[in-house]
Structure formats: structure tokens, C-alpha cells
Amino acid sequence: MTWAKVIEGEVVQTFHEDPAKHWHPDALVHWEDVPEGVTIGWKKKDDGTFVSAEDWQAENPQTIPDPGPPGVVIRTGVTTDDVNPNVDLELSCEIIGDWDEEDPTHIPTWDVDDGAHTSNEFEWTVSIPKNTSAREITVTCSAVGTGGTSEVFTETVFIPASV
Q: Is residue 81 classed exposed, middle or buried when 0-12, 13-18 and 19+ CB atoms within 10 A define those classes?
């Protein structure tokens, strides 16, 4: 005779003696007599019969949800000094969600200042000529991941005026 401890429809322990002689009465609620051959991992069906995990999966196929496209977090920084004729715009992106860093197609796509500068790097510095008036530059980034291409994320960066 085989006894099985069944939790939420799954056999988690088996025993070949009467569990009443070994476990506290409160714990016996999970134990039941099962057919020979039932082992850990088997599932109890609604009709009371037991099937192996492989048979259970074949009868109850699980659909894996589409992970959906990734998200993007944009980080920006502006560096300027009196000697350099340019303002350095430092950009980095973090891809959030399902993507594979080993897959060469899973990359970010940057666009700075309406196509004036583009890149597929994760970290990138763009040199922008200084101007006597302050301005705002639009930075966009999207990413390709396992679930497709993300929406385009936009950040507006303030570039200070230089004297």
C-alpha cells in the first residue's frame, strides 16, 4: 500500500506505511491511499485519479503568455566647460522586460535632435556645438526585445546657453 501527501492536487511526498502511525493527526488531512506507482510530482485529477506530471502537462497544456515588448529607461547628463567648443550630452538606456543581452538584434535605437544624431549603443555621448542661447533637444529611444519593439520613449534635455 502506498500513501501520498497531496497538496493542491500534487503529490509532494510518498510513504509505504500507514501515516497515522507516524504523523500528527492534524497533518493526516493531506494523506491518502494511492495506487502503486504513484510518485512525487504526480497530479490528482478532478475525478480522483492520478497521472504523471508528463501526462498532466499533455492533458493540460499551458500557454506561455507573450512577454510583450520591453520598456526603456533613459538617463541623460549634460557636461560643458569653458575650453570645449561643444556641450557633451551623455546618454544611457536600460532595457526593462524580456530581452537577451547576447542577442545582437536586442538593442536600443537612439535619435537625438530629430535625426541629427543616431546610435544603437547602450551608453553614448553626443557632442553638440555650443550656442549663445539655451535650447531644448529631444532625445528618443526604443528597444528590441523578445516580445518585439518597444514604444518610443522621449526625453527633452535642456542645453544651457554658453557665453
A: exposed
Integer CA distances (angstroms), 128 to 61, 79, 80, 111, 145, in order: 55, 10, 10, 14, 30
DSSP letter assigned to residue 55: H
Q: Is residue 25 within 8 Å of residue 49, measured between CB atoms?
A: no
- Per DSSP, 134 falls in state -
pLDDT at 89 over 80: yes
Task: Considering only the C-alpha atoms of the chain, give the largest distance between any 2 of them, rounded to a whole number of Å.
Answer: 91
Pairing mode, strands 148-149 and 135-145: antiparallel
Residue pLDDT, tens place only, 28-48: 899 999 999 999 999 999 999
Give the C-alpha separation, 30 to 74, whole Å. Answer: 52
Please state the pTM of the whole predicted model. Answer: 0.58
Q: Which CA distances in Å does 130 have to 82, 84, 118, 163?
A: 10, 9, 19, 9
Domains of the chain listed by start with CATH number: 2-59 (no CATH), 71-159 (2.60.40.10)
